[in-house]
Amino acid sequence: MAEVINMPRLSDTMEEGTVASWLKKVGDSVSEGDILAEIETDKATMEFESFYEGTLLHIGIQEGETAKVDALLAIIGEEGEDISGLLDGSADSSAKKEDKAPAKEEQAEETETEEEESSEEESEDDAASGEAEIPEGVEVVKMPRLSDTMEEGTVASWLKKEGDKVSEGDILAEIETDKATMEFESFYSGTLLHIGIQEGESAKVDALLAILGPEGTDVSGVVANFKSGSADKKAAPKKEEKKEAAPKKEEKKEGSKPAKQEKPAESKATSSSDGRVFASPLAKKLAEEKGINLAQVKGSGDQGRIVKSDVENFVPSAGGGVQPFVATGEESYDEVTNSQMRKAIAKSLGKSKFTAPHYYLNVELDMENFMAFRVQYNQLPETKISFNDMMIKAVAIALKQHPQVNSQWFDDKMRLNHHVHMGVAVAVPDGLVVPVVQFANEKSLQQINAEVKELAGKARNKKLKPDEMQGSTFTISNLGMFGITQFTSIINQPNSAILSVGSIIEKPVVKNGQIVVGHTMTLSLACDHRTVDGATGAEFLQTLKKYVENPVLMLA
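and the corresponding structure tokens:
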């Protein structure tokens, strides 16, 4: 008897999941304990194993698609078993239409008076056949969801070109998400038949990224279906049954051929019609370092693409050509396309600022003991900690005593966390990322120092993994190294608060009734009033003040 498998709840907060990849395909034999798929939750991408044995008869959620917990994920049963009764109207319309096809033919033969009904059925069959135009052995690769918040991606560079052989595990492209630029590897082997998103172009998750298959296969119909918005699901059995309806499919393919032939001609120039310059990421970086305007550089790569050597050998013309960006008496500006990271920052911080009622608490701390403690601690062999490391440790210890500040707000609940996962804001060229130091209160100062250095390095090189940026319960933003004495930050939701750390300044202070030279630091705590009341935030700052002004207590 067939077994229905629903989208599992793989974390305590998971409400929906995304199928990152299927390790089995329809028709494969499945044993108990086999890994069926990799499922991306709100916290991590996890392997999901089968609890049943049999044949994989149906896949309800395709790779890259997202569905609620308990949605139909797959059906396992005996080979050839009829599962039409287990499928609802939205699960697999193609399977239903296969079962109904003979009945439709009989209906057409038995009665000629129901012309409207039969014409509707024929149009449905034609649509179904259009949905099944993926040739045998051809695999459609869609824009993957590479982070939990990713809605669209930008192709930074292709490592393969059309016509190249691709093996499973080969890196196809580098894709820029809202958090990092990540390598995307192929799960299939074959020839790269079509590239759907060019370098520098952005597209939504699940958009047509590439098509792989046997060399020489005509995939123009598949491309046309994606362009027209038609479904792209495989339906191999139905494809054989519908061979009779070939004329309509042929008309579709013939209509799409001119567009496909015109495409290469558009991309031969260094720049596209909308002003985008086609250049490799390395060439762009080198041009930026040298201050070279890529619009003036002639590309020698494929289809006029600018490569590293073109930038290295570029010599500005003495006269004529493109004018420099800046000229006396002329208005001048650069337009920079918003990166995926910049779009994500704008969206998440805009949402935080306009949905969470922010308020701010400021406190000035005496830093004399803090500074002296660091000097003494760094005298230990092979030890070097920063003020930021010490602040992370002090804040983490204080948060353990104030779970209300270490909380998270959700639409239907408030979570008081007893663990401290410290988000540390790191500035990168494209904006800001927040890697997370997990269980910060339990780690030594040296451990915090090493982990923050590693995470910050990964952030600047765009090598952070999604799970290294998830799960923060509180965030610290430190601009003291830039000489900023005081500032406020926007809360990193779903956290309830964020601490802004200014620089240590030398100033006159009053001690024991005398004006002396002292060192102080101003902290600003931004709180979400839905979870943290004013008195609660003030009590947390009092506890933090105790640890900062008496840092030896952090070692207790």
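(Above: one complete record from the training split.) Residues 35 and 49 are 4 Å apart (CA to CA).
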